[in-house]
Amino acid sequence: MSFFRIWKRTLTAEHTVVEGVRIDENEQCVVVSVRPDTRRRQRCGRCRRPAPWFDAGRGRRRWRDLDHGVMRVFLEADAPRVDCRRHGVTVTAVPWARHAAGHTYAFDQQAAWMAAECSKSATAQLMRTSWRTVGAIVERVVADRDRAVDRLARLWRIGIDEISYRKGQKYMTVVVDHDTARVVWMSDGHGKDVLHRFFDALGAERARTLTHISADGAGWIAEVLLDRAPGAIRVMDPFHVVAWATEALDAERRASWNRARRELGDRDRARALKDSRFALWKNADDLTDRQAAKLTWIAATDPRLHRAWRLKEALRAVFALAKSRPTAALRALDRWIGWARRCRIDVFVDLQRKIMRRYEAIRSALATGLSNGLIESTNTKTRLIIRRGFGFHSADAIIALVMLTLAGPRPTLPGRQPATE
Fold first, then answer.
1. How far is Cα 320 from Cα 312, in angstroms, rounded to an integer?
2. How far is CA 201 from CA 151, 188, 206, in A?
3. pTM metric for this prediction
4. How far apart are the first and last CA of the chain?
5. Which DSSP symbol is given to 43?
6. How far apart are CA 106 and CA 50, in angstroms?
7. How far apart are CA 312 and CA 372, in angstroms?
8. What are the tens digits of pLDDT across the range 169-228?
9. Cα separations (Å) of 375 from 3, 68, 160, 174, 263?
10. Three-state DSSP class for residue 72
11. What ranges in 73-218 are assigned the alpha helix state H?
C-alpha cells in the first residue's frame, strides 16, 4: 500500500485524494494536501449541487483534523468559488468538512462525543481548542443531525415542564415525547409566551393529533393547552399531587407546633413536634424504628396531626393503586375527596378544593398511568450537564448540549459503530 493511501485511510475522509504530506516547522503540525475526487468537485458548499466555476476564491485553506500522536494535523486544499443558481456565489463544497466550518467531520464528531460525556473544559483541553469552539461544534453537529429529522413530527403523547438553571428565577421550558423518551423542544424562559412558541413551531394541524399532555398544576400551562390543544387529554402529574399533600401535612405540623409552644406552653412537646418532620414526610413503608415510634407518639398525643398524616398516606396509596387497578383507584380518589372535605383540617379542605379544580386531569393520570417522571429524569440529566460544566453563561449552551445528548442518537467516536443493546 502506498504512503498516500495509508494517509487517506488514516484520515477517514471519503471521496478525498491525498496529494502530499509535509511538516510545517513554524506551526509544528502535519499538513496534508488534499482535493476532492472528480465526482465531488465544483459543487455548491450549501446545497452540494454541481455549479459553474466562478473564481479561485482566497487561495488555499486549512481544516483542523484529529491529532496524530502528539502532532496536530491540518488538511489543506484549494477553496475556489462557484456560482450556484440557488445560493449565488459561494465556496465549493469539500467532502471532509461542513460548509463554513474550520474542522473536519471526524474532529467535530470526536469533540461532540467528548462534550456529551465530560465537561467542555476537558474537551477543549484534550482537543486543543477553545471552550467556545466546542460549543460551536456542538451546535453544528446538532443542526446537521436535525436537518434530516423533524423532531416535532408524529407526536401523540408529550410532557411539559420547566427547570431552573440559574439563580434569580432563570427557567427553561422543556417538552418530551413520552413514546420515544426524547426531548423534542426546549427554550429559554417559561410562561404562556414561551409555550405558545412551541405550539407555533408545532403548527395547528399537528397540535390536533396530540392525544395526551402531561404537566404539573401550573395554571399558565392549562390555559395555553385549552387554547392550542383542546382535543388533547390533560394529565396531571401524580408526583405534584402527592407533593401538595406533603406540603399541607407540613403546614399542619407547624400549626400543631405553634399551638403547643404558644397556647399550651409545652416546650418539650413543641420540640418533639419540630423533630417529627421527616417521620411525617416519609412513606410508611420506609420508616425507621425511631420514626415509627415518633408516629405512634403523635397518634397518642395529637390525633388531628395524625389524621393529617393518614390523609397524606391515603392519597399516595391512591396513585400506587392506579398502577395495578386503575378503576379501583378512581373510586378511591372519590372516597378520599369526601374524607378530606369532612376532615375539619383547613389545609386539607383547601387541598381537596384544589384537586377538584383539576379533577379530570388527575383522573386521566390514574386511568392512563402517565406522569412527568420521564421529564423529571430529563431535568435531572440537565442539572448534571450544568453541574459538569460548572455553570453556563447562557441557556443556549445548555440547550445545545441537552439536544446533543437527549434529543436523538448520541454521537459516536469516529470510525466506530454505535453500541447495540
1. 13
2. 11, 15, 10
3. 0.81
4. 37
5. B
6. 25
7. 20
8. 788 999 999 999 999 999 998 889 999 999 999 999 999 999 999 998 888 898 999 999
9. 52, 41, 7, 8, 45
10. strand
11. 105-117, 120-127, 131-147, 192-202, 204-207
